[in-house]
Amino acid sequence: MTSKACRLATAVACLALAPMMAQADSQYGVDPVSGLIMAPGWEMVNYQCNACHTTLIIPQNPGNKETWRKTIQWMVDSQGLWDLSDTWEPVLDYLATHYGETEMDMSKFRRLPLPADQQPPMVTKESK
User: Fold this and answer.
1) How far is it, in rounded angstroms, from Cα 126 to Cα 27?
2) CB atoms within 10 A of CB 58
3) HEC profile for 11-37?
4) Distance from CA of residue 79 to its chain's centroid?
């Protein structure tokens, strides 16, 4: 990717994240590189998540503590993530607190997301 395309992609990502950043707890800033709310625990989440994927996807996947636990356990079981050991609770607390479930603002969307039974099947290694 050229540097111009890279800058454009970064600008688009920043614009897409602007509404989420605006919702960030006013007590904490937002890291301009990772897009994470710089509340206690953010650096641990940044280092662990960025080892495999961009942290920019975290705000796109909000959930309560149990949802985050299941998501991370899926990463451990099927994606090669190491066991978080003693960092499970701090990571889950940070994610659930700052990227927890929020009510959908229907003024921003045309319709509700499709129910799970109406979505296309997930492609897995076994289904290929």
Assistant:
1) 45
2) 22
3) HHHHHHHHHHHHCCCCCCCECCCCCCE
4) 16
Residue 30 bridge partners (DSSP):
37
Q: What is the chain's pLDDT, residue by residue, as a tens digit (128 residues)?
A: 566 655 555 544 544 544 444 444 568 999 999 999 999 999 999 999 988 999 988 988 889 999 999 999 999 999 989 988 889 999 999 999 999 987 766 676 677 778 888 888 878 777 66
Retrieve residue 54's tokens.
Answer: 């961009």
- For the chain, strand residue ranges (E) read none
Reported residue count of the chain is 128
Query: Structure tokens of 73?
Result: 């356990």
